[in-house]
# Entry
Amino acid sequence: MSAEPNKRRKLKKRWILLLTAVVVVIAGSLWVADQFREEEKQLRSDLRQAVKKQFPEQAARVADSFGLSRFDVHPDPTNPMQPGGNTVVLVHGLDEPGSIWMNLAPELHHRGFDVWIMRYPNDQPVVESAELLLDHLKMLPLAGVQELALVGHSMGGLVARELLTRPALDYQQSVSYGEVPPVVALVMVGTPNHGSELARFRAMTEVRDQLVQLAKGEANWLGGILDGAGEAKIDLLPGSRFLTTLNARPHPQGVKLLVIAGIASPWSEKQIDGFIANLHDRRPTESESMLADLKDSLVSLTNNLGDGLVTVDSARLDGVLLRTVPGNHSSMIRNLTENSERVPPSVPIVVDFLEKVFAEYSI
# Structure
């Protein structure tokens, strides 16, 4: 009778040991990767370059899918395209399969903007994405564009900042030579300006990206490497060499900046203020210090949650206007389905900001 319980105990012990070993291996690999970030990044880049060299046709096919394209809508005689007028370039983020602009792009077009969408290898180093963006912006003067605004979601905001501030790219010199139009505004939506710890787990978003491409019939069996071998993940980690260098530079001159951060928490800072005020009315004066501490804790909890991927403090930039909106990393800018009548909270803020910037620029 005792043999069966002993067998179950041994089996349970083995499972516990196995799970413990798995946890130790994962934790150890994360620690090692964190200690040798730049070395891992170089290995990933070497792998990508080796694959491109070994499979040039596949690499060329994938490369052809990237670039700048004008937002295409059904012709509307009452609202014709505005070539070269109030141009906006939308730059997506990490492992984005293409749906992030499903609400903003049509609304911008409806309001008379000339909308362009940039697609790039979203897992490659941010520096390379900024270089690619610069190359494609050089086609805009040929399309009659005289000035433009950039809107970046998530890592797209970092790509735009790198483009505008990296000395080696010298965007302003390209403007002075007439190679590219001047950028008058940059809106960063859910951008991890100080990094995100969750970038470590980009493998899950990479799977989603490739599945969406498969559903569209655009999948490539080497797409998971040719669109970047995960170097961007290392750039996005807090304290990375890339972010440290980027954040040490001054903000681009002559460019109006706006940061929009999402808050997935069920309460906002305004609601917290109301809650604390209500408690203050019910408690004696001696509790003011306690209530102040409680408010700080609630605000900190809300900001640290942020949009679920990027905290409010990570999105924040010194000297740059910050707007917070309810929603997670995606819902703050897009709906779950195309048929939804909900207006994502960031959309009217972006449109209003850009209309004001272009109005001021044209004076």
In short: The first helix runs from residue 3 to 35. The chain has a mean pLDDT of 80. The chain is about 50% helix and 10% strand.
